[in-house]
Design goal:
Length: about 110
C-alpha cells in the first residue's frame, strides 16, 4: 500500500480523495520540523504532499530523510525557486480537482 504524508491544511479534502484511491494518508499541520516529519513516518513514505508553501523548506528536510519519496505540491501559491529541483509535481487546485489528483497519484 502506498504511504503518503499530507502536510498543511486540507481545505480541498485531498486526504479523503487519496484514501479513496487506496493510499494510506497521515496528516500533519503546523510547523514542519524534522521531528514532526519523523513522527509522521517520512522515512517510510512513498509520497509527500505539501499544501502550505509557507512550509516549503520542509521539502529539503523530507528529501534528506527519504531521498526516494515523491514530492507533490498542491497549492494556489507559486513554488519557491529553491525547492523546484526537489519537487516532482506541482499542481494548482484551481486547475486540478482532488479526484483527478488522487487518481493520478494512486
Amino acid at each position: 500500500m502506498t504511504q503518503a504524508i499530507l502536510a498543511g491544511p486540507d481545505h480541498d479534502d485531498l486526504g479523503p480523495a487519496l484514501e479513496g484511491e487506496g493510499i494510506d494518508v497521515s496528516c500533519v499541520d503546523g510547523i514542519l520540523t524534522a521531528s514532526v516529519l519523523d513522527d509522521a513516518g517520512i522515512a517510510d513514505a512513498d509520497l509527500f504532499v505539501l499544501t502550505d508553501l509557507d512550509e516549503a523548506t520542509a521539502i529539503s528536510v523530507v528529501k534528506d530523510r527519504n531521498p526516494d519519496v515523491r514530492i507533490v505540491v498542491y497549492s494556489h501559491d507559486s513554488l519557491p525557486e529553491f525547492v523546484r529541483g526537489q519537487t516532482d509535481l506541482a499542481m494548482d487546485p484551481d486547475l486540478f480537482g482532488v479526484d483527478m489528483v488522487a487518481e493520478e497519484l494512486g
